Amino acid sequence: MDAELNQLEAQLEQLISLHGALRAENLSLRARLVKLEAENHQLSEKVRRAAERLEAVLNKLPEA
């Protein structure tokens, strides 16, 4: 009986430890996601502005 309780206690401690590690990883991943989404938005805006400038230049070219 004591051996079973000791084993359950060890498993519970391991589970609690794993939970803490996964929680920390989850928080880190969420922060990274926010940063990458902001970067993606900035890059999308740069591409949009470049496309607009390119279109403006193409519109100024004489037709062949």
SSE blueprint:
Elements (H helix, E strand, L loop, with lengths): L1 H59 L4
Would you mind describing this structure in some detail?
The chain has one helix and no strands. It is an all-alpha fold and 64 residues long. The protein has one domain. The longest helix has 59 residues. The radius of gyration is 27 Å and the shape is rod-shaped. The relative contact order is 0.05. The mean pLDDT is 96.
Structure summarized in a few sentences:
This protein is an all-alpha fold and 64 residues long. Helix content is 92%, strand content 0%.
The computed structural class is mainly alpha
**Helix fraction by DSSP (H/I, runs of at least 4):** over 70%
| Number of alpha- plus pi-helical segments | 1
Number of DSSP strands? 0
Question: Could you describe the largest sheet, including whether it forms a barrel?
Answer: none
Overall mean pLDDT stands at 96
As for the number of domains, it is: 1
- Poorly predicted ranges (pLDDT <50, ≥5 residues)? none
Secondary-structure element pattern, one letter each: H
Distance between the termini: 92 Å
User: Beta-strand level of the residues, as a percent range?
Assistant: under 5%
3D shape: rod-shaped
Radius of gyration over all CA atoms, rounded: 27 Å
